[in-house]
Amino acid sequence: QKEVEQDPGPLSVPEGAIVSLNCTYSNSAFQYFMWYRQYSRKGPELLMYTYSSGNKEDGRFTAQVDKSSKYISLFIRDSQPSDSATYLCAMSGNQFYFGTGTSLTVIP
Amino acid sequence: KAGVTQTPRYLIKTRGQQVTLSCSPISGHRSVSWYQQTPGQGLQFLFEYFSETQRNKGNFPGRFSGRQFSNSRSEMNVSTLELGDSALYLCASSRQPPNTEAFFGQGTRLTVV
Q1: Which residue has the higher pLDDT, B9 or B56?
Q2: Can you tell me the distance from the alpha carbon of B102 to that of A47, in angstroms, rounded to the nearest whole number?
Q3: Is A24 on the interface with B (CB under 8 A)?
Q4: Which residue of B has its CA nearest to A31?
Q5: Confidence of residue B98 (pLDDT cuts 50, 70, 90)
Q6: B42 pLDDT band (50/70/90 cuts)?
Q7: If interface means Cβ-Cβ distance under 8 Å, which residues of chain B face chain A?
Q8: Which of B31, B54, B104, B111 to mutate: most A Cβ within 10 Å?
Q9: In this structure, is the dihedral angle defined by the CA atoms of residues B88, B94, B98 and B99, taken in order, positive or negative?
Q10: Which of A78, A97, B37, B106 sits a CA distance of 20 to 30 A from B21?
Q11: Residue A102: pLDDT over 70
């Protein structure tokens, strides 16, 4: 079993839709949870970083962590074409573990 | 504040050659991790350095090696290149272990022909 599981998509939504991206993990020792956005041929860009269970909001982005279910989510409200990218979840314990990424396309 | 700088950005090498990639972390960051990214495999962890010491190593052959200098800059080396080593190599810096936020460079795209 992989440490982190993420649905690769692809996901295609109309502009303005709410997007939900999810990851599950198996290691209860993970302490920090992150979401990265990666545009084609670029390095991943840190979007959100959370430590505890619960929600964290930053503009149109909300990160949610449920440690009891070992499940994290990223919600994007009012999605824009510029949100079209691959989204990677990441978790850290003694090192970083990444999901394989979900490819998102927002159609104008 | 300068971000993570990786050089070179693009590289074309021939099978059997060796290559050295460089990573300069964000000022004040002492932990550097390296990853290989390919379309089929996603981000694969290579190794992590902190204070010039390798803390963790991924499941890659010994042809992949790295080091970190006293100024926290890091290099990774791949010897006897194979076609399958073609990938985007990313480094990420963070302040210190246990890892919290990690910031990535733009990567070095290596093509082996």
Answers
A1: B9
A2: 11
A3: no
A4: B100
A5: low
A6: confident
A7: 4, 6, 33, 35, 41-43, 45, 48, 55-56, 88, 90, 92, 97-107, 109
A8: B104
A9: negative
A10: A97
A11: yes
Q: How far is CA A32 from CA A36, A76, B44, B79, in A?
A: 13, 20, 19, 34
The reply to whether omega before A10 is within 30° of 0 (cis) is yes
Contact call for residues B92 and B31 (beta carbons, < 8 A): no
Closest CA to A88 of A49, A60, A53, A59: A49
- Which chain A residue is nearest to residue B47, measuring alpha carbons? A95
Q: Do A43 and B105 touch (CB under 8 A)?
A: yes
- Residue A62 token pair: 């909300």
| Percentage of chain B exceeding pLDDT 70 | 96
Per-residue pLDDT band at B99 (split at 50, 70, 90): low
**Do residues A85 and A9 touch, judged by C-beta distance below 8 A?**
no
Could you read off the pLDDT of A31-78 as tens digits, one per residue?
889 999 999 989 999 999 888 788 999 999 999 999 999 999 999 999
Interface-testing mutation among A33, A37, A95, with chain B (most B C-beta atoms within 10 A): A95
**H/E segment holding residue A2:** none
Environment class of residue B105 by beta-carbon count within 10 Å: exposed (0-12), middle (13-18) or buried (19+)?
buried
- Residue B39 CA to residue B50 CA, distance in Å, equals 28
